[in-house]
Design brief:
184 residues; mainly beta; Jelly Rolls; 6-stranded antiparallel beta sheet; 1 helix; 13 strands; elongated; VPLPA-CTERM; VPLPA-CTERM protein sorting domain-containing protein; transmembrane; membrane
Amino acid sequence: MAAVTTVAMSSAASALTITNRTADCELGSGTSVTCGTDDRRDLSVVELGESVGNDFFSLGLGGTAEFEIAPNFTGPLTALEVTNGRERYYTETADVFGRNTSTGMFELLGSVSNTSAVSTINFAGSFDAIRFTDTTIVPGNRTGDGYDLAAFTVAAVPLPAGGLLLIGGLGALGVASRRRRKAA
């Protein structure tokens, strides 16, 4: 039985949005948002934020789901496993990758599983896409559909304090310039 998952990261000061979604539900199936006929294969049900309802996306054994997110995000990542504790059937796992904004390359951030209610991945940096890749190993002849994802949230990369000072300084220069023009 597959586990329903909500993935969450720390709250952000600015609103984040998913700008693009792609999936490869079975190895070699291509990249489409819908990877099957049932509701467990519709990537559009994955939400950025808290899960609404009981819908989730099944990665499929070896499958992936990738989300481009704006603005950039950072960690830590906390995965909340809604139906955890069912690992007696088999453990569903996924590696989580982030696309580094400096290099444009995906790097491993950590792994999540259904063995506990909460999995935390601590990481730092600036990322603009997140990818969940199923790494579930199903023993014997059992069938399985891999790691399931209902929702996730991410923390926006905060504007550095120096950036705020720069914006404030430029605003002050604009006000001073305007006052000089009026006085002249």
